[in-house]
Each structure stands twice: as structure tokens, then as C-alpha cells.
Sequence to fold (1500 residues):
Amino acid sequence: MTTFESIFVPAPLRDAVSDAAWIDAMVDVEAALARAESRAGVIPVAAAEAITAACAESSFDVPGLTEQGRASGTPAEPLVRALRARLADDLAHYVHFGATSQDIVDSAAMLVTRQALGLIDHDLVAVESLCAGLARAHRDTPMAARTLLQQAVPTTFGYKAARWLVAVHAARARLVVLRTALPAQLGGAAGTLAPLGDAALEVHHLFAQELGLAEPALPWHTDRLVITELGAALAAAASSAAKIGVDVALLAQTEVGEVAEAEPGGSTAMPHKRNPVGAVLAGACARRARGYASVLAESVVGEHERAIGAWHAEWGALSGALAFTGGAAAAIRRSLDGLQVDVARMRANLDLIGGSIVSGAAGVLVDRALEQTGR
Amino acid sequence: MTTFESIFVPAPLRDAVSDAAWIDAMVDVEAALARAESRAGVIPVAAAEAITAACAESSFDVPGLTEQGRASGTPAEPLVRALRARLADDLAHYVHFGATSQDIVDSAAMLVTRQALGLIDHDLVAVESLCAGLARAHRDTPMAARTLLQQAVPTTFGYKAARWLVAVHAARARLVVLRTALPAQLGGAAGTLAPLGDAALEVHHLFAQELGLAEPALPWHTDRLVITELGAALAAAASSAAKIGVDVALLAQTEVGEVAEAEPGGSTAMPHKRNPVGAVLAGACARRARGYASVLAESVVGEHERAIGAWHAEWGALSGALAFTGGAAAAIRRSLDGLQVDVARMRANLDLIGGSIVSGAAGVLVDRALEQTGR
Amino acid sequence: MTTFESIFVPAPLRDAVSDAAWIDAMVDVEAALARAESRAGVIPVAAAEAITAACAESSFDVPGLTEQGRASGTPAEPLVRALRARLADDLAHYVHFGATSQDIVDSAAMLVTRQALGLIDHDLVAVESLCAGLARAHRDTPMAARTLLQQAVPTTFGYKAARWLVAVHAARARLVVLRTALPAQLGGAAGTLAPLGDAALEVHHLFAQELGLAEPALPWHTDRLVITELGAALAAAASSAAKIGVDVALLAQTEVGEVAEAEPGGSTAMPHKRNPVGAVLAGACARRARGYASVLAESVVGEHERAIGAWHAEWGALSGALAFTGGAAAAIRRSLDGLQVDVARMRANLDLIGGSIVSGAAGVLVDRALEQTGR
Amino acid sequence: MTTFESIFVPAPLRDAVSDAAWIDAMVDVEAALARAESRAGVIPVAAAEAITAACAESSFDVPGLTEQGRASGTPAEPLVRALRARLADDLAHYVHFGATSQDIVDSAAMLVTRQALGLIDHDLVAVESLCAGLARAHRDTPMAARTLLQQAVPTTFGYKAARWLVAVHAARARLVVLRTALPAQLGGAAGTLAPLGDAALEVHHLFAQELGLAEPALPWHTDRLVITELGAALAAAASSAAKIGVDVALLAQTEVGEVAEAEPGGSTAMPHKRNPVGAVLAGACARRARGYASVLAESVVGEHERAIGAWHAEWGALSGALAFTGGAAAAIRRSLDGLQVDVARMRANLDLIGGSIVSGAAGVLVDRALEQTGR
Fold:
């Protein structure tokens, strides 16, 4: 559905949120469950070993599994069947023991998210570094500040870049916090962990440990704040990249000419054009990310112990929010990398409204931004 | 990005909005442009024939083209290059003559939309038929009306189905209107059709004719109402399917038990469960469709003659809105097809609050609904 | 909740969607219902006359009624009580006969919408007229077309204005269609018109007639497409105004200087600033209108015969969408009224990239736009 | 614009986000600015004292100021004029010294937010307390868990309430964090604090101190993450209340009958109805809050040093998000306060699908929830 997605989303991120990545994560979750249960004495060690081995075998038929998932409305049910088919009859029933589909899909969603957030963070760090470089290099380069697109009073380009830096840093910091707290999901059919008996809480703990995810106080199958907050934080991060994009595209206007992307998009018909493609793509990606986040914002309101649709709408929306936030980060990184800054033009534009060049505390605020963000 | 999309979207619709379908449509647009231009005497007949032949050759390297599209932020630029490479040097420059990337992508979007709307319509018609069948069969089957989820006064199940019918019919009618009016896009670099000289308006006319699309009064590269209205109408249609889904899921509750889907989703752990999967998937699809529509709602506000991001965000959002609206239609069709109606249970539930069974004008209103929708 | 609403929304429109206007409309609906019922012989003529008189008396205690509405979650219940209290005991029970709260509120919503759409249309017509004036006056005024904010090839300012015209005209046309079809709502507690007996359909017909609203085939209490479509069409109209605003603000940039609003916002600190306040407010209003429309987009999906919240969320969101669409129209009218166009600057900017001035079919397309929109 | 707002929003919260409250806050900001500047030696002590006195005088003409704000697109400009008019000529120019409109409005927005969040928190704490009470009282009350609205396996009502508690607690905790960090805004026309000279950073510090707001590293006029995050967190909190509402309304269904609100909404026509009005209003409020949050989600992407519309759209959207989140909290508090729980009915419904009552670790998880939330 994401038409021309490779224009927008870097390949590693496309892979990280692909069906194959989700299925791989679900397989990892089943294996972790088996190990946690065997460590807690709920299932035999031999079963856990066999399940882990079956999970590690060759990969599954991803398109086949998802097609089959249409019947039950979840990809977990066919996966469990496929996994059981790999095991001897006396061990097969230990697969997925005590779990429900949502446990597997939600925990897998957290693994996918962790992986994708890592990729996104990599690009956001690079963006911060580029902003910091511009802030430092142009700490005292005068340019016009513009409010409501009218020249206001002088500022510096370094200060503009410093504010980009601070905004991206804050948006990234939020994602880092959320990434650290990604919770495992295990509750069983009703969230009561009923089939696990006295070992329930121990399995709950070990399961999270096996996955390297946080152990929540309670199963969160009915509490989708985690998902909603991820959506909002991703959209905010994408938008902070898009904000830079708007500024770059405005500064790159033919009549302004203060910056130009190092690798602008050309036009066969119009050789003079230097399209700020990175800036443009960042803007497009942020719009898409906000669209996905709007779906995730509704997730919190669901019926009883599993919602009639809100949950199912999360999977693709979460993948989409991750992918396009990463797309926004990569695009603005491209935009800023090697950005050509025309200091003379900045000065000339500033002279349009005359007046002396007083940029106030801009320089000190740049220093503060660099210090606060550890740059 | 649409994780597990085959759970939600029927295969023909997935194909209809795929990258390959978009590229095919773009190729058709280039061929139509060449033919229109040769008919108007702007380019040689031989050029148009050669271009048409080149377009009809084997298919293009879709992943390669989209990857290359990252540089210029549009898939049209690499496609034009690939197409020109298939032609002799003296004819190559007639490819894409007088057009801009947006002409190709927008016109292709309309072709993709036309095809996808056809598929969606097929399922919506089937849904209407199923609703009409239920309305007719249960014209006088008493059941409780429920407001704020409290039993109110009696109604009939036929009347409930008749209102589903009327709603889906209205939503479908809007899509039919929009489908008929899908406009071709041809304006050239600035919308002025400048390179086409005196033949500009004739080419504009013939181009639309070649594509079987409507000819707009003006190029609409800066007027995205068409896109926004498509998004809104698709989301409304998906939501009208989801409304049926909510009612079905509520009626299928264990404690209500008035309907059951013919092919409910089972549960290995809980054999008694009869999950209304069609209803659930319709709800999920509508949420996703609304998310895409929210992106398209912003399209109208763009900068000058081509927006910095709003346009690029349309492609995948339009595909997504089409796909998930079709998914909603297919899912609710599945839900209603063979729906088991427990007339006795309807009556028993109605007796919970006592009182006589008076369903007012319900029967006559059913007749009216059937008549109005031509059923 | 609409902080500083008088900055954004013209006073007549604020009045038109105020609580008082809604209560007035609800009173009109109750009176129309009584008259329709007496014409159909369902209630005595004397009752209808008394009710009409009671409705026409002095106005109701609006804040009191809405405060009381908190208990039942609807303003209709306290209004019916207040109205009955104005009547003799033997006539009081004829008030609201056979109706339910939703009948009154929904029908009133249509009356409020009709009134507000009239005000909005007035401003949109003025905007069209201003666009047409600019299109005609500057039919052949060369200026740069800009794609991705880079100068592309020449166009004319008249053609730009013509496209504004066509877009606003199309958005307005959609609102006109919807306004003509605003449906009365009458269904009684379950939509079956049960208490009205054999006269049900006659009352249904006369009621719509009394209100001057369209008679729908069926009560639409469960089919909220009307509401959703209004939201989408309003947001699209507001956005078409905001699109003009973006272009104006970009053209008004200090470095571009091609247009200036006649009454720009000043700044005590910066006397040189000429803030394009109309353009800015149009943009703000469109954002708000889209926010309200997103609420209305969810209305279609509701539970059974009255939704648990989706319906209640409509009232303020509909008022808001109307108000801010009107705000956007008024703001862009202000922006365009007396717009100062610097033809020399347009030409000078165009010279930045050199080349000859060829604006293709721009002039003819302007003529076509004027003709198509009847200007 | 918020039709019938008193049905949805408690009076204190309506007051807290009213125009009058915003103007009061703006006045407080101007006074704080003057005091900070006099403490830093930028303006005379006498000026600060006179300004503080003028601010403390009688209140301002709120409707007049906002009407006048239409000209400049901001309420700050007329307020500054009105304030200056209260001062002697030689002191008037010290009002608003070095500040820009956005400094005043943004800082006031933070004061309004702080006040409103306090009111919201009060209701959310009460909701937590009610949830905790239900969790404790019904720790071991068996009931059916329901997934996809089908009975799954047994759980306990206490565990359901415990998950409500945990969700509301988490949503509230996020708001508490954001409230603590609400930043003062002071940057001057371009964010450089230019007119304040060497005292710039000292004034920046003292200004935040005077207002009791956090001092940000940099002015945040171009970095709207604060606003976007507030919107998202408010919508999430409102939605966590709405989630409880959905569950309550479903449990209160005539056919389920497991709970009833203590003060249900009645119906004159249908005395048997017990409408779960609190639950319904919570759902409506959350929809509205999400609509406002969607506006605020776009705030991050703005043009240069002040956006052409995104900023202006924040004011009412922020007020709305605050008001309706408070409305959701108050409504669900009403819903849960005195909630009637029918333990026998819960048991009877559970018997519908037979089987033994095993609620697994539900009890221990309740204990954990109570402990984690400090209840």
C-alpha cells in the first residue's frame, strides 16, 4: 500500500518492518516463551529445546502464513500451526503453551519496534551532528529572522541550526526513553496467565528477560498507551525533521538562495532547477507518519479484553509510523549533509530592510544548545 | 509498511495499487500522451507508434525504477529515462514531450484509482445485495432497538439491515460519481502547456480521451480537491462497512447471540469461541482508511505550482485508502455472507424488558429502502 | 474552548453556531413537529397552536438548559421539560410527541448548518469574485511558476488566480449541493416512527416540509454519512482558502515582494513588517476545520440505534467545522480584497533565471476558468 | 464553537481555558516580564512597579481585546496597547520591553495549561481512587473476560478495574511530568533576546522564575514539541477514560447487566432505560480531545521563526484538548462513582459457556497494580 516506498524509506528500515521481520520476531517470541516456561518448570526442558530448534530452522513461508491469517484475523494462529507441524506429536502441544495470539503479536511488535527505533536513532544522531556542525560553523553568520514569512530582525544561521538541533534532540530523547521501556506482553487468553498456575509470575518475568524487554506490572493487552505514545513520539520526531525541511526549502527558494542541498534533484526540462529533494521528502514522510499516528491514537479505546478492530489496525500503522519516521530522518540527513550555505546572500538579503546587524544573545544560545545536547 | 496486508486486503486490490500497477499506469500515460500529440500534429506519427510499441514491450524493472526515484523524489524521472533508452536516438526526445513528472504521476493515479474503485464497487454491490436480502427476509422479524447500548423499543432486523443498505448505497453512490469524473492531468512544467504551442488545448483534450478520463477545465496540479474528496469518500465507505461490523459484533456477543458469522474465526484454546472476524477486520480496515484520508485531507494546501511534500505524500496514502476501503468492503461481505440469524433469540432478548411488540413503520421503511436502492 | 474565537470567526457566524442558535433551532423543530402532527391529525390543532405559541414566546434560559443537559447527556430533555412547563397540563404531553431527543438535535443541527452555510457561501462567493477580478486583470501578467519552491518556467498571475478561483468554486459547489440536501430527522425512539401509527409517513413528510429540509427515504439516526460528508466538504473548502493563503504569504515574502495585503498586520517594534494576516488566519482556520472534520469522519461508525459518544461528539465538531470554514473564507477574502500586486517585481523575479517569457496557454485557460465558473 | 460545552466540560475547567483566563495569564506574563527586567536592571524599578500595579487593576475588556486582535492576528498587540494606556507616558514604553507577541501568548498558554492540568489531575486522581476501590472490593469476583466481544475465559472484575487503574495512572503520570516541565517563553522578535543586551540571559532566567515555569535552554518559538506532546498526552488520558467508558457501557447492556451507573440518564418515554451517561460522555469527550490533538500534532512543522497559521491554530486547540480531557475525566468519575456491580449476574453470564472458574493470577496482579500505583 505504500506506493513507491523505496523513494521514501531506506532499505534497512523497510526490511525491519516487513512481514518477514514480524514473522521472525513472532518466532523469536515463541522460542522465548518456551525457554521461559522450561526455566520455570512449566514445560519440559526437552520441549523448549525442540521448540527453539524448530524456530531456528529454515524460515517460514511468510506469504502463506499471512494469507492463512485472513481466516482468524491474526497471523499468530497459522504460525503456531506451522511451528507445531515441525515438532513431534508429543512435543507439539508445548508450543505457544498458555499464550494467546495477542501475546505473540504484541511482543513481536515490541521487538520490531526496538530494531526499527535503532535504525531511526542512527539517522537522527547523524542529523543532530549535522545540525551541530552548522550551528558551530555559522555561530556568528548573520541572516534575517523571518516571522510570518516577513523579515523581522537579524539572527544567525548558527542559531537557526541550534534550534533545529535542540528540537531533534528532544524528539529523539523521547524515542530513546520509550525504546528502553518497550514491554513484553504475556497474559494468556484473558490476561490472567491462568494456564501457568503458580509459576505464572515467574514465567512472566523470565519471558521478558529472554526477550530483553521490560517486564510490565500487568499484561497490557487492554492498555494500549504504549502503542499510542510510540505513534505520537514517532510523528513528533518525523515532524521535527520536516520542520528543518520547510526551513531549508524556504531558504533554497530562487529568490532567497541562502542554502542549497548538495545533491538537489534535477530536471531534464529545466537544468537551472535545484530541487531540495531531501527537504521535500522529509515533509512528505512526516505527513505519512502523522497519518499512521492518528490511527494509533485511537488504539487506547478498545472493547473489553481485546478490541474489535483497534488492535488489528495497530500492526500496519505502527510499521508505517516507524518506516516513515525513519524516512523523514534519512531525508533530512540527506538534505543537511553537505548543505551549501551562501553567507554573502544571507547578508545581502538582510540588507533589504536595512538596519544594523545585532543578533543579541544568538551566539551564547548556540553555545548553550551545543552544551545541552552534548555536542 | 502495511504489515500483514494480505489479512486485510484482497489480492486483486493489492495488485491494483502495487508499484507495478502504478508503473504500468504511468507507462500507459506516456503512450497516451504520445498518441494525443501525434493526433494533434505535435510529434510525428512514427514517434507515437514507436513510443507506444516501447511502452508495450516487456515490463519495466519496477524495484529499480523506484529506487532510482529517490534521487529526484519522483518515479517519473527514471521511467522517462528508461523509456527513452528503448527508442532510437532521433525519437527518444519525443517521449514525455511537453509534460512534467506530475502529469504522469497524477494521470496514473487516476488510472489506478479507476481500476481499484471498480474492484471496491464489486464488493460493495455484493454487500448491498446481502443487506437487501436480510432486509427482505427479516422485514418483520422483531428485535430490540438499542440506544446507548440499552434496549429501547422494538424494531425489526429487516429494518436494521435496510439502514445498513441505505448507508452503503449512499457511500457507494458517492464513489461512483467520483469515479466517473476522474480527471486526466496535463499541464507541463508550470501548468501552462507551454511547449505544446497552439495545439495545447487540443492535446489536452485528446490526452484525456486516450485515457478515457474526464477532461478538466484546467490542469489541477495545484488544486487537489479531487484527491481530498476521494480520500473522504473512501473513508466514509469503509466506515459504513465498519458500522455494520460494529452491529454484527455486538449482536454476536455471547450474551446477546442474535447473529453469528458463517465462518467465524476459531481459537485452538477456546473451541466455544465464534469470533466475528469479518466484522472485526472491517473495523480495522476503516480505521486504516481514515488514517490515510487524514493525510489526503491536507493535500489541498500546497505551495505554489507544486507542493513541498504534500503531493508526494498522496501516492501511498491514496493507494492505502483504496486498499483498505476495499478490505473493509470485502470483510463485511464475508461477515454478512451466510450470516446466521437467531430469530428466537431476538424475540427472547426483546422479552427481557417486556411490553408489546410494535415496530411501527419499520416494514414500510424497509420497502422504501429496497425501492430507493433498486433492490 | 475556542480561545480568541473572535480573531478567527466573524461575529455572524459565531452567532449562527452558538448555543442560543442551537436551542432556537431545537425550538423551531418542536414547533414544526407539532404542526406536522396536527396537519396529519395525530394531535389536536389546538395543541399545535399552543405549542407554536409557547415556542414563539420569549427565549429560553440557554445556559440553564445546557447545564441541565449534563444529567441526561442531551440538551433536548431539559428543553422538552421547559417547553411543557409553558403549556396547560392537558396540552403539555403533545409536546415532542412521538419524537426522541436525537430527532430534535439532528434536525436542529441541519437548521444551524443551513444558516451557517449561507453565511459561509456569502464569503466564498466574494472570494470567487476577487479571484476572478485578479484573473481578469492579470490575465497576461507574467510571473514565475514555482515548483518545490524553485522557479520553474513562466506563468501568469492571472492564471494563478484562475486556479484559485476554480478550486474555491469546486469546493463551494460541493457545499451548495450538500446544503440543498440537508435532511430532516424524525424516527422516534428506535427510528420506527412507532407512536405515530398509520400517520407515520405522512408526519415524516410534513415535518420535513415544515422545516424546509429534505425528506430522507429513511430516518438517518444510524447513518451519519450526512455529517461526515459535511465535515469533509467544509474542511476542503477551508483548505482551498488556506491554499490561497499559502501562495499569498509566499508571494508577500520580503525577498519576493510580488503581492501585499491591503491591510497587513503591523508591529509596534518592527514598522517595516507587513504581515499577511488574512493569509495567516486562513491557514490557521483550515487547520482547525480539519481537526473538527476528523472527529466527524468517525461518526459513521456507531453502535446500533444510537452511538455511545460518537453522536454527542458531533455537535461541537460540526459547529466548529462551520465556524472555522467561515473563518477561513472571511480571512482569505480580507487577504485578497485590495491585494496589491507588484507587476514589475514579478517581472524582475522572473528575470532571475533569464529566458524568454512564454506563458503558453495560460491566457486561454484563464478565459476557460472564468467561463466555467460563470464569471 | 463548542456547542453545549457545559454538557461536556466542568465549569471550573471552562473558566480555566476561557478568553478571560488567557487574558489574565497574558497580563501576569507582562507583569512578570517587567519585574524580571527590573531585577536585572534593564528597566527602572518604578516602571516595574507601575506595570505590576496597572496589571493588577481592574480586569480588561476581554471581548474588546479579542475583537481588536483580528487586525494583527494576535491578542497580544491590543493588550499591550491597553496596558500602556494605563501608564504615564514616560513609563508606557517599558511595557512589553524586548518581548514579542509570541512570548506573551506562549507563556500565557503555559500558565493556562498549568492551571487546567491541575483541575484535570484532580479528577484523574479521583478516577484512580475509584478504580482502586473497585479493584480491591472485587479482587476475587469472577466474571467473563471477553475478546472480540466473545466470552473467552474467566477473569475477575477486580482485575479489569486494576487494568483501568494502571492505564489511567500511566496517562496521568505523563501529564504530571509535562506539567512540571512547562517552559516559559521569552525570545523577543527573533528569539535572540536582542533588545535585552548583556542582561538577556539573566532576564530569561528571572522571567521563568517569576512565572514559576521551567527555564528552557533556548526560546522554543520555533520548536513546538512541547505543544504537540501536550496534545498527545491529553488525548491519551482522555482516551484512557473513554476505554473505561466503553467497558462500562458494554457491561451495562440490557442483555449483560453486570454494572449500572449510580446516576443513569433516564428517558421520559422509556422509564426502563438506564443510560450510562457518564460512560457515553467520556467517549464523546475523548473523540473531541483527539480532534484537537490532531491539530496540535501539526504544530511542529512551521515556517522559519513564526509559522503562518500553525501557531495561531494552537491556542484554541490547546484549550479544547485541555477542556475535553477534563471532561472525559469528570465524566468517567461520574460513571464509576457509586457504580452498581451485580456480582450474581457476572457469575450467571459466566455460566453461559460453562466450565470451571479459574482466574489464574488475576488476584496477584490486582495486588501488584495497587502497589505500583501507590493505592
